[in-house]
């Protein structure tokens, strides 16, 4: 089941249809009620855990949702580049591996953006290894050795951090 499913009931139907040789006859009100119970009681964590990214109140958090934060970040950019930014949103990191996340983010952002703006969210096929690839690029840099903090210069580094104004 896709964790970031746009329609949870449809995803559950698809799962049940897959286990029933492609035949899904769960359409009566009673059968829908049973499906809802299964979804809420048995398999709800698969749906509700990532749903907190889009509805943080489900996690008991009083913060903005992922799509709201992304949209606000785009709104901070100059007005002439906002359309381009909304067409070029790239996901990276572990949470980007949630199936359906890009599609869901695209739908949620489309509801916030003007109807004439085409929102497009991209995911890299290499995002699973993105942290490793980034670390490899940094480690192979010629300046890597000089920017590392060693035991010998740790005290000096901490002193610099303490005196820095953030």
TrEMBL record:
InterPro entries: Actin, ATPase_NBD. It holds the Pfam family Actin. CDD domains: ASKHA_NBD_actin-like. It comes from the Eukaryota. Gene3D superfamilies: 3.30.420.40, Actin, Chain A, domain 4. PANTHER family: ACTIN. This is Actin-related protein 10 (inferred by orthology to a human protein). It comes from Anisakis simplex (Herring worm).
């Amino acid at each position: 089941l896709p964790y970031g499913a746009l329609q949870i009931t449809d995803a559950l139907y698809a799962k049940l249809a897959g286990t029933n040789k492609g035949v899904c006859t769960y359409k009566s009100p009673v059968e829908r009620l049973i499906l809802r119970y299964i979804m809420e009681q048995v398999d709800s964590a698969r749906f509700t855990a990532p749903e907190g990214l889009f509805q943080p109140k489900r996690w008991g958090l009083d913060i903005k949702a992922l799509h709201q934060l992304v949209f606000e970040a785009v709104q901070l950019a100059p007005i002439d580049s906002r359309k381009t930014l909304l067409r070029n949103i790239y996901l990276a990191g572990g949470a980007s591996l949630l199936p359906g996340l890009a599609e869901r983010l695209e739908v949620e952002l489309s509801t916030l953006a003007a109807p004439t703006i085409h929102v497009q969210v991209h995911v890299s096929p290499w995002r699973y290894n993105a942290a490793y690839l980034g670390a490899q690029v940094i480690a192979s840099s010629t300046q890597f050795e000089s920017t590392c903090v060693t035991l010998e210069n740790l005290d000096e580094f901490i002193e610099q951090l303490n005196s820095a104004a953030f």
